[in-house]
Amino acid sequence: GSLLWAQDLRKVYGPTPALDGASFSVRAGEVVAVMGPSGSGKSTLLHCLAGIISPDSGSIGYGGQDLATMSDARRSALRRSEFGFVFQFGQLVPELTCTENVALPLRLAGVGRKEAQRAALEWMARLEVAEVGDKRPGEVSGGQGQRVAVARALVTSPRVIFADEPTGALDSLNGERVMQLLTDASRETDAAVVLVTHEARVAAYSDREIVVRDGKVRDMAGTV
Ligand code: ADP
Ligand code: ADP
């Protein structure tokens, strides 16, 4: 069955709804690409699924729990422990070294310094950025920085990885490396990936593509 699903989400900001009856589901280990034109509601869908914003109506289920009606505190706790995030611009903390950036989610979860550092180094090696561990984000290339951001998203062993245009700021070679490493990691850890992209060559790394148009979802395989 699904690990994370949403049914009939509606979210209105202005005169036209950002989400207008959107449904979605993803299984453990599955990579779903969310495609569609700019302004169609992709980011709003991702933010609802991730519990960052609440839909006006509709239901969101995660492992038998109802995200839509859960308290903010519980939703934040769930987000920190079960979800990982990668954005277009890595959003690394500029004052910290790359290793400290990757270790940060574990430190915030209460993991000791030594253990967090060990796990960070392991993930950086897997993302092929061990050599930039002592540098600050401003001193590494865009591709390296984004792989550090992916390592940071994976270090807590999330069950769901939300990636919003993760390759948007990269050239195609670096973009493909990031996608290969991200999807390899998802396969190894059985993490689901919700990947927002408008690039077909990025979506090609997914198991399934859906298209959002005018706040509604069309599943390319048929029904949602
Ligand atoms: P399958 O094994 O066929 O994938 P799922 O359990 O994943 O079945 O659910 C299929 C669809 O039903 C999901 O995409 C989701 O939208 C919806 N769904 C799943 N669980 C619930 C629920 N508890 N309440 C309402 N809809 C649900
Ligand atoms: P996409 O990610 O597909 O580009 P978005 O989900 O960002 O689309 O936006 C969908 C619609 O909702 C757009 O019309 C956008 O202007 C609007 N929207 C999104 N977020 C906000 C917000 N915080 N305030 C007002 N309007 C918003």
From TrEMBL:
InterPro entries: AAA+_ATPase (IPR003593), ABC_transporter-like_ATP-bd (IPR003439), ABC_transpr_LolD-like (IPR015854), MacB-like_ATP-bd (IPR017911), P-loop_NTPase (IPR027417)
Residue intervals of the ABC transporter domain: 4-224
SUPFAM superfamilies: P-loop containing nucleoside triphosphate hydrolases
Native source species: Streptomyces inusitatus
Record CDD domains: ABC_MJ0796_LolCDE_FtsE
Positions in coiled-coil regions: none
GO cellular component labels: plasma membrane
UniProtKB keywords: ATP-binding, Nucleotide-binding, Transport
Name this polypeptide is given: ABC transporter ATP-binding protein
SMART domains on file: AAA (SM00382)
Protein's UniProt keywords contain Glycosyltransferase: no
GO molecular function list: ATP binding; ATP hydrolysis activity; transmembrane transporter activity
